[in-house]
Each structure stands twice: as C-alpha cells, then as structure tokens.
Amino acid sequence: MNEANPSAIPTCLLCGGTTVEPSAVIARDYVYDNPGTWSYAECRSCGSAFQNPPIPEDEISRFYPDTYYTGMDFASRGMTRRLRIKQLIARRYYGYTQIQSMTAM
User: Fold this and answer.
1) Boundaries of every domain in the chain
2) What's the rounded Cα separation, in Å, for the pair 28 and 44?
3) What's the average model confidence in pLDDT over 72-99?
4) Where are the beta strands (DSSP E) in the chain?
5) Distance of CA 80 to the CA centre of its chain
6) CB atoms within 10 A of CB 46
7) Mean of the pLDDT values across residues 68-89?
8) What pLDDT was estimated at residue 102?
9) Angle in degrees, CA 31, 37, 20, rounded to 5
10) CA dihedral 29, 37, 62, 47 (to 10 degrees)
11) Which of 25, 50, 73, 104 has the maximal Cβ count within 10 Å?
C-alpha cells in the first residue's frame, strides 16, 4: 500500500506485477468539469497504465451521466469515424474510385 495515498493500488491490475510506479500523467475532467485531478500508474512488468488510485465506485456516476457519449453510434452503423476518414483520404488524395469496406482495418 502506498503510504502517501492509502487508496492507491499496489499491484498491476493486468498482470499482478508488484513494480507499479506513478506516471507523470495528471488528468483533469474537461468534458463534465468535475473538480480535481487524477493520477496514473505504470506497471514496469507489462507496461500497462491505469488510473491510480481509482475513482471510488460511489463517485463514478459523476463522470458517466445518462447523456455520456461513447462514440458507439458510428460503430453500430458498421463503420467508425476513423474508417470513414481513411476512405475519404483514399478517394480524394490517392484517386481510389472504388473502395471496398475497410472494416477489417
């Protein structure tokens, strides 16, 4: 347990590694303007990063209200925004006239 922050997670959530170090990343909520900052940790064993300490369960609803947008509208139509942009670039700048579905990219 981290003495400076007792709610910090001492092991990696992905691999269980015990060499978890604070990251230089400090995040703020610019979308819903929730007060505070959040820090991250990085596992030296597998390289994964995770929010540490995590947001307490009873506070998560502040960050994910009913109007929270996940971007799933594009995916539910079978094509993500990124793929549509790739197709536009391929047509406009590289002259591709027939582009098959790029959903495998």
Assistant:
1) 1-66, 69-105
2) 24
3) 68
4) 20-27, 38-43, 49-51
5) 16
6) 12
7) 66
8) 45
9) 120
10) 90
11) 50
